Amino acid sequence: AMLVCFGVSWPISIAKSLRTRKVEGKSPLFMAIVCFGYLNGVIHRKAVVFLVSDFMAKGYEKDLRVAGRRHDLIAVTITDPRELTLPSVGRIAVRDAETGNESLINTNDSRLRTAYEREAEEHIRRRNEILRRNRVDVMHASTDKLYVDELYRFFKMRERRLSGRAAL
């Protein structure tokens, strides 16, 4: 209901942010809520919807569930392998993309690297569990690989599953 009063300006603003890769001052959670709101509030006919995201935001499960009931939802998860491990390169400055805050961290600390890797693995596990629990088809894409093979594998799997369902 909130999105209806804003119209299409919010989704357009989000698309612009994604295109320019500038999200400073915008909450990923809010952006996800607006997109789901648009999907669930404006698109009334059942549609095949590809949701392309790294799924880093939290709190999107309820909206995902609603969208999944209304539409044929396909999640395309984007993973950058460089975000799964922290290289040992000494002290580095890191900036929070959402707030712009900077911090200095020591990447030579093995405990920090291990904790980072565990958090990345836990995030992927939680994301996959949420998608599975909501019966969303998933296609995984990685920034270091061509996606053509994954696309082919995904659509073959989907074809087999849907033709099996049709035969029941």
Can you describe what's shown?
The protein is of the alpha/beta class. The protein has helices spanning 2-6, 9-20, 28-41, 61-70, 110-133, 148-167; strands spanning 48-53, 72-79, 91-95, 102-106, 137-142. Helix 3 (28-41) packs parallel to helix 4 (61-70).
Order of SSEs: HHHEHEEEHEH
The poorly predicted ranges are 1-8
Give the overall shape: globular
State the secondary-structure class: alpha/beta
Helix content: 40-55%
Number of H/I helices: 6
Strand content: 15-25%
Rg for CA atoms: 18 Å
pLDDT average, as an integer? Answer: 78
Give the strand tally: 5
Distance between the termini: 38 Å
Strand order of the largest sheet: 1-2-5
Largest sheet: 3 strands, parallel
List the helices and strands and how they pair.
Elements: H1 2-6, H2 9-20, H3 28-41, E1 48-53, H4 61-70, E2 72-79, E3 91-95, E4 102-106, H5 110-133, E5 137-142, H6 148-167
Parallel strand pairs: 1-2, 2-5
Antiparallel strand pairs: 3-4
